[in-house]
């Protein structure tokens, strides 16, 4: 009867149990009718009580279910943390307990985060893929290092304010998981949420090597443009990246096109290196293993913007030649590695390509002397012009600089010419621009007879030196013609090359434009820079002197004397950290003479050759 009444009123099982307990309490269970009346009374007179009872019961069930869910989540986090910890291969500050603690804090802040997959790790960072949608980078920071935390967060927010329309891998959201870290004894975690990429350059290089795939030159140059553009933005913000390497460069592949982005912002700002560099003699020898991407000056706490270029140059060398690979090496190998770029001798068996446009940029980036590395914007502009010459610039997007218009180029050229040619500079600049042959002008030097300008030849796609000279009389014209004839008759690596000569008329005035081989600097500039920054060893001195004598011997073999030999008229092409190519230039005073001079030059050459052999034997 009791059970029947309960079912009739459609009460829950817990209510039925409660009613049976009540019947037992009043001990009227021997009289079924009385029991039924009691139940009826409770159902009719105490409906509110029963509803409260039902709610209380339901809440208890939910708490129990929630507790079971927490146990399940805890077990799940434990398994995920253990799995992630077991996947960490390199040295890291993340152990099982720090991973588990971080994930617990992360899931409490963002309950929607339920799936975590290991991507990679550093000494103080862990990268995970969340919900198969985006990436979370977890940085483990010492609680006492408050300045580093603030600097990093300021930099992240500053770069984020630039917007996502650039080639920097943006941080969509950033926050701390332990806000009271100053008094806490546990680790502080700094979280960065970012978009998910197809992979990094380490993955790409591995695929290119294993599958023997070769990217086209214009594709590699396009990637280099994007990286220089991103680096240029960093440098414009007054910061260095400091950690450029393949694992910190991400790529996105869509519709057959690559987009690359520079990742892993660092909290360190640019140091002031306006003063001269200290002489590098004995780098810190306590480093057992060296980060091979690090330039030598970095180990003397002299890291600056041009140090980023060295690191990027090595990455581009791997991009240009996928078989070129290396890992951490000993300090001795590291010194050998940096000393022999020009000879193509590496602590590995593979050689890098030397016949590509990208290699010319790589070579400049890898120079041991930072003063010989150009600014990132210079390389960026050169690569942009290269893409234009290949008609690959239709969809090219640059964020750090606005491509100069013809009007901008003309204004810049006018400002360079103004100092030398005065009122003729405007018309001369206009005529040079109308040739549509040159771009990216930079002043190199000036003399009494003319000015020398660096420019990019759009047709040949090479950086050249333009010597622009006003012909005022017949003597200066003959002198110029002599110079051109002498150089063009001497086809040698020790004599500067002349590619082309053009004449522009402005009224009655004649301006000659001599398009010449572009070298890095004069011997005068090279010696001055190395006196205060990097010493020139005995072998390099002999190499320089030997090449000068060889060049003179070639002149004398043609019965020509230079008559104006001085450090300013000897040009230097820097080929590596300890190797140069010498070229004799400026033949305006050259003259044909008798054959006696040739024998004197040959004797000097023999003496230097013997000295060179003695040094090699040591």
From TrEMBL:
One of its GO terms (biological process) is mitotic DNA damage checkpoint signaling. Keywords: Kinase, Transferase. InterPro entries: Kinase-like_dom_sf, Prot_kinase_dom, Ser/Thr_kinase_AS. Residues 113-390, 438-618 form the Protein kinase domain. The keyword Kinase applies. GO terms for cellular component: cytoplasm; nucleus. PANTHER family: OVARIAN-SPECIFIC SERINE/THREONINE-PROTEIN KINASE LOK-RELATED, SERINE_THREONINE-PROTEIN KINASE CHK2. This is Kinase domain protein. It comes from Tetrahymena thermophila (strain SB210). The lineage of its organism: Eukaryota, Sar, Alveolata, Ciliophora, Intramacronucleata.
